[in-house]
Write a structure and sequence with these properties.
By secondary structure, the chain is mainly β. The protein folds into 2 domains: 22-150, no CATH class; 229-345, Single Sheet (Histone H3 K4-specific methyltransferase SET7/9 N-terminal domain). The protein is 8% helix and 52% strand. It has helices at 2-16, 59-69; strands spanning 24-27, 31-34, 37-40, 49-54, 79-85, 88-96, 102-109, 112-113, 115-120, 127-134, 137-138, 140-145, 152-159, 162-170, 176-183, 186-194, 197-202, 205-213, 220-227, 230-238, 273-279, 282-290, 296-303, 306-307, 309-315, 319-326, 329-330, 336-339. It has a 26-stranded mixed sheet that branches. It has a two-stranded antiparallel sheet with strand order 2-3. A hairpin with a 5-residue loop joins strand 14 (162-170) and strand 15 (176-183). The chain is elongated, with a radius of gyration of 31 Å.
Length: 345
């Protein structure tokens, strides 16, 4: 009996020094690929075992890191190890630095991501990303931290690869930015932040204050409120020549006909800031346009989507000018010059 126990102990000890008992550890330079399968050089049998990558990151792991972190991982890592079964990645994959700091760990099952995945700052070894996978799809809670690992930036609930549940974000100081509820990949309610701004939702529609910015920038191009998915109240829109173009955020703004401006009247092209009133998704009420120096260069009124009432603007040729409209039609073809020396209203 004692001999039997000793024999089993010896086998267990031997296996402890291997990736798996009976499996081979292979230098990546001995690995060949053919038709999507990995082989040991000179073998016709798909490889099963562990591959070590010295100062090199396998393309699949590099792509995973880039997608998760947003930048590539330096190749000056000491070792990456990947497990294979029948020629495909299956099992634990890890990368670490020469000082022993983990870069990340990821598990494959039948070539699909499976289980917990953790990514670390390779310079410090602190945790910066956490994901959980099931059959290649995100499931459970995903977390993103600052590079020093001290502040949680994003916490997202996933189910079968779609955002499902609570989604929260914070800035680098820990101040909450957004908190929303999702179902099957669609936002249901709450405040949601993305790379184009922050907005509030209710019953799956934009509802409440919204601030839209240029992608991955703090430069605003629209600010206002929604009700049941429609613009309402006062909106500020910014942009080059916004006075005579379609407004941002995919919602049609007031469009001025080029015929409004006579020869030398390029005032609309100078407008970079538009302030307008909205009712149920359409411009209705006062509209004011400002140039890049915040000078008021035109003022008008819109009723039922049409120009209606006085339209004052600054012309580089005529100064302060008055036009009059009724139900979208100009009531007089003659412009009234109010002040030939004016540069703003």
């Amino acid at each position: 009996m004692r001999k039997t126990v000793t024999a089993f102990a010896s086998i267990a000890l031997a296996c402890a020094f291997l990736t798996a008992c009976g499996q081979e550890t292979l230098d990546s330079r001995q690995l060949d690929e053919n038709s999507g399968l990995a082989y040991k050089h000179g073998s016709t049998t798909p490889f099963t075992g562990t591959v070590e990558w010295a100062n090199q990151i396998p393309d699949a792991l590099q792509q995973y890191w880039t997608n998760a972190v947003g930048q590539t991982l330096s190749n000056n890592l000491a070792t990456c190890k990947t497990q294979y079964k029948n020629g495909v990645m299956d099992g634990l994959a890890t990368c670490s630095t020469s000082s022993g700091q983990k870069a990340f760990e990821l598990t494959y099952q039948h070539e699909a991501y499976e289980g917990d995945s953790k990514l670390y700052n390779p310079n410090s070894g602190v945790l910066i990303r956490e994901f959980h996978w099931s059959a290649g799809r995100l499931n459970g809670t995903a977390k993103i931290y600052t590079d020093d690992g001290k502040q949680l930036l994003q916490e997202v609930s996933w189910k079968d690869g779609a955002q499902n549940g609570r989604v929260r974000t914070w800035d680098v100081n820990g101040t909450p930015i957004s908190d929303s509820i999702w179902s099957n990949g669609k936002i249901v309610s709450g405040k949601y932040a993305q790379n184009t701004g922050v907005a509030e939702y209710k019953d799956g529609q934009l509802d409440g204050p919204a601030t839209w910015t240029l992608p991955n920038s703090q430069a605003m191009f629209a600010k206002g409120s929604y009700s049941a998915g429609q613009r309402v109240g006062t909106w500020d829109d910014w942009g080059q020549s916004i006075g005579n173009t379609v407004g941002p955020s995919g919602i049609a703004s007031l469009t001025f006909e080029p015929a409004l401006a006579g020869p030398g009247d390029e005032f609309l092209a100078k407008v970079s800031h538009l302030v307008s009133n909205w009712i149920n998704g359409r411009v209705d009420g006062a509209v004011r346009g400002y140039d890049g120096n915040d000078h008021l260069v035109f003022s008008c009124h819109v009723k039922n989507g049409l120009l209606d009432g006085p339209f004052e603007y600054i012309s580089p040729v005529y100064g302060k000018v008055l036009l009059t409209f009724q139900n979208g039609a100009q009531t007089s073809t003659v412009r009234t010059v109010l002040d030939p020396n004016a540069t703003s209203l």
